[in-house]
Amino acid sequence: MVHRQKIPTQTLGSYISPPSLGSYINPKSEILIHFLESSLPLFIFHSYKNPTSDQRTVDAQRIVFKNKMKDVINKSLACLVVFFLFLCFSLTFTGTVDYKSRFLSFLPQLSNSTFCRTGSPLRVYMYDLPRRFNVGMIDGSLPDETPVRAENFPAWRENNGLRKQHSVEYWMMASLLYNGDEDGDSGSSPEAVRVMDPELADVFFVPFFSSLSVNVHGRNMTDPDTEIDIKLQHEIVEILRGSEHWQRSAGRDHVIPIHHPNAFRIHRDKVNASIFIVADFGRIMSISQLAKDVVAPYVHMVESYLSDNKEDPYESRKTLLFFRGRTVRKEEGLVRVKLKRILGKNEDVIYEEGSASKEGFRASTEGMRSSKFCLNPAGDTPSSCRLFDAIVSHCVPVIVSDKIELPYESEIDYKEFSIFFSVKDALKPDYMLNELKGIPKAKWMKMWSRLRSISHHFEYQYPPKKEDAVNMIWRQVRDKLPAVNLAVHRSRRLKVPDWWRR
């Protein structure tokens, strides 16, 4: 039997204990060094196997072992010296070393998808236009030259009917006039503030009520009053082109609401470099695009469901699918007639013709609040006010529109509270109803809960409140600034504009 010779610990330790090592380390690390001195050689020694049973080869193997040991120890010693030099340097110059935080600093950080924003609000310069371009269409009692201020800003008339749904321009202007003195909870951090010095502005707001002008000055192209609307469009173009602020950026940093499909219809191609506030792109696809423009929600026509606190909202809503409105529409809205033929006679569905009257809105309010799902087919254009009526009624929207674009979609995932069908699938007999019936109660409850938590983002109000509709719109405008600044700066230095497209 071969007897291994026990090598004294202190002898092995002497191989890795040069007198100068202690000068490289912090005194607090001496315990670690003594541990390494005693444990490392023993680990290496006991893992070494003597390959021969011949006693005469033991001495030779011991020599080989010692040579290998010296090589291993020298390399280990070099690593230890470098490590302790680094440790001493870190303690001396950076204080306590948090290696976890140092390591994590090299990793990509996950972003929180919250609505909190840091930094100053968007600075907006608002053109001071004669009243005929905006509030004069609501209240003509003051002279046209009277400046529009918070104290003489007219309240929106609730009897204005369908004019309300495209009144985004009114609420945007009101938010800039609000000075914080009126009663109301406006929140501590508005997304946009008015600046009186144009040199301080991030963007320029043009308070031309182009959507209201369509409704006030003649609804049909053959109506003589439409000439007033056309004249206003022409005048505003002349005002803008004569402005040095417009000339400096070619209008790229200007914000112009054109929410109604026919708003600014004659001359909007002359201002199409600006940031448009739109409902969708149905009739302006040639001059408008998602990259530069902002999709804004309609102003809902039904009352908000503020007391939606039933113990079991799923069971309390007896109707599976609800629709009330005009079924005969143009263009995109042709799908409504086809859906009526498929859904109209189903006992789980209410699909009825409705008018834009006070009684009609009341019936729509009751119908949406008593239904699990609300059908939102396209209107004359891909979007419809009915979607936002459903949201504030906490009725899960069923959207049937192939070309719809949605507000705030960079921040809100509509799949969390809406159901989407292509027109092709929606027109398959029984397909849509079977899909809706197959949605479990738990999933519907989750969508209903999400509707309750986001519905305030679709409220237009004065005074404005934190993260309401108008503040969300201004936030979306702010997100367009990098692209706007790129286009402005690039256009100033290019001798041949857009050379890369040629």
UniProtKB/TrEMBL annotation:
Aminoacyl-tRNA synthetase: is it a keyword of this entry?
no
List, in alphabetical order, the Gene Ontology terms for molecular function in this entry: glycosyltransferase activity
Which positions are tagged coiled coil? none
Tell where it localizes.
Golgi apparatus membrane
Keywords, ordered alphabetically: Glycosyltransferase, Golgi apparatus, Membrane, Signal-anchor, Transferase, Transmembrane, Transmembrane helix
Q: InterPro entries under this entry? A: Exostosin (IPR004263), Exostosin_GT47 (IPR040911)
Q: Which GO terms describe its cellular component?
A: Golgi membrane
Task: Provide the Exostosin GT47 domain boundaries.
Answer: 120-435
Which segments cross the bilayer? 72-93
Q: Does the keyword Manganese apply?
A: no
Q: How does it sit in the membrane?
A: Single-pass type II membrane protein
Write out the similarity annotation: Belongs to the glycosyltransferase 47 family.
- Name-wise, this protein is Probable arabinosyltransferase ARAD1
Originating organism: Olea europaea subsp. europaea
